[in-house]
Amino acid sequence: MQENLKPQRYWVPREDRSLLSIPERDLTTGLVEENRLLFEKSRLSLHGRSLTSLRSDARRDAVRLASAYTSGLLQTDVPEQPSQSFIVSGHQPELFHVGVWAKNFTLSGVARRCQSTPINLVIDNDTLNTTTIRIPAGTRERLRIDRVLFDTPRPALPWEEAKVLDQDLFRTFGDTIGCQLNASWGFDPLIGEAWKATVNQLSVSTRLCDCLTAMRAHLERRWGLGNLELPMSQLCETEPFLWFVAHLLSRLSELHQTYNKAVAGYRLEHRLRNRMQPVPDLERQDEWLEVPFWIWQRGDTQRGRLFARQVGSICELRNQTEVLARIPLSDQGSLEGAVKQLSDFPARGLRLRTRALTTTLFARLFLADLFVHGIGGAKYDAMTDWICERLFGLKSPSFLTVSGTLYLPLGDPFEVTERELREINHKLRDLTYNPDRHLEHVPETAALITEKTSLLASATALRQSNKIQGRLTRDQHHRLTEIRTALQKQADLVRSEYESTRTKVRARLSANALVRDREYAFALYPEHQLRQFLTPLSAGE
What we know:
The chain contains 17 helices and 18 strands.
């Protein structure tokens, strides 16, 4: 077990059609086998229930819920097929970029190779921060980003609480974006046709996350993937998950210390000084210790922090304002009473949900034979590994990290570099202090510069001869003033040319950055471009 937190280094693939896979995808079958053996050999017990038993129960519930939820998305029956092996990934239900979507195709491919069930966790307990999508607008020379609404703006709130508020705007969004991109850039984006599945989902659910997930699920099925979708909100109400929560609460002080040590180690390793990065520390408020879960009331627009304290054989839970539950809990006793009370939370309108690290801790320990991460999640899971090994005495299971980059077909980048911008900035500065250097090759000013040099040289020669103090005569001074005025006019013209060049270089560099932007939503791309790039990842060979 490592004492120091030493995260793996990751890098974002920057070239068009480039992929990142750590380790390489052809090694994933071996990773799955290693993880399966790790779990098979484990003797870990959580208050009398073996990890093997908990994993079996968690998978049974997960496949049942995922089959039902995916059936609702596809509006067709997806039979429940019990499985002894899961490959798992997950992300927020947003219109994410192609590099994130690459995880879903890899998920399908690994599951096929390993004869496993692929499950994608819809992280609907995370926060919806915007109801806009970024699209490229303007011209090739003056490229810019516009943000287009797909639904009514609102304050940030949990995805699972977000409803479609403006159905007219929502229904027409796909056609609106399709027409704009076709008119500006001459290609038909996927969203034009694919958005119909999003609109059709409104007849089943007005939850925004369900509608957006339905579009992606329909596309993946049409392209040959067999992934099941499972909202994290549903997984957080299963009995094995509540057992996991109760077990952690029974080790309250140890959990609090271990979590904060992992975060501190990550900050030290990455030289982070911001106490909010990568995640905030768990707080202590008198006898109350913050725990790594969210709590809020159904319909609330903000997630609340959960605090706990142990009073004898009772663990009290509260949010920021009131005590919510008093559950029977000790480090040695049964967890059944605690789980029973936690299972009553939904009937009371209470949402008990994971935070970032507990999401992947539960998924990797209780569901997955292999978890497929993106770059951000992989970086954070160095902390999850540390917590797993110290709280459970179990070597953390390996995971796969996948991302990719695909450029929108906006044209080739301009042949311009940051060096050119630095050079033109240097010329502008030098023009202020040494204008003659920039004018000596201009025919209109060459003679003036020669005359100016001659006048100044004459004054210098006189001063050095000690005959006079080296001052110009009145006529010479007047002539020098005329020359400087004439040179300044020419310098202003040169400055204008330099500034015009700088404006053009800046615009082209900015346009290049947007041409090479990897963050555009996957639904903005032409279908053939996406399929060519992504579907090989789902192959089972």
